[in-house]
Amino acid sequence: MEQIMIDLFDEYRDRLGMKCTCSRCQSDVLALALNKTPPRYISQQDKAAYVKAEFVDKQEMTTLLVKLAECSKIVSDQPYCRKSGVAENSVPYLYR
């Protein structure tokens, strides 16, 4: 799931309307989106194609894209990066 979400994020990053696109904010979006997505585990790397095949379905991909958009808004509204001025050691929204 992580690689699928990263690929989707890379494809739509410019259209998500993030206020800040620093690496911290991007990582926060991905972490938050992955935490809201059911995991798909594989025991052998050559089986990854089966998991990716599930997301050829437009509805499945749209569901992931909606999660990314929602998480992008959350991070944009409450960034925890140096640009935002929030202390680095404060508890981020990911753990609340």
- What is the H/E string? HHHH
Low-confidence stretches: none
Rg: 14 Å
How widely separated are the two ends?
23 Å
> Strand tally, please?
0
The proportion of residues in beta strands is under 5%
- Please, how many helices? 4
Could you please describe the fold and organization of this structure?
There is one protein chain. This protein has 96 residues and is mainly α. 53% of the residues lie in helices and 0% in strands. The protein is built from four helices and no strands. The longest helix is centred in the C-terminal third of the chain and has 20 residues. The protein is elongated and about 45 Å long. The two termini are 23 Å apart. The relative contact order is 0.21.
List its traits.
single chain, 96 residues, mainly alpha, 53% helix
Give a concise summary:
It contains 4 helices and no strands. The protein is mainly alpha-helical.
Give the secondary structure arrangement, pairings included.
Blueprint: H1 2-12, H2 23-35, H3 48-54, H4 58-77
Helix pairs in contact: 1-4, 2-4
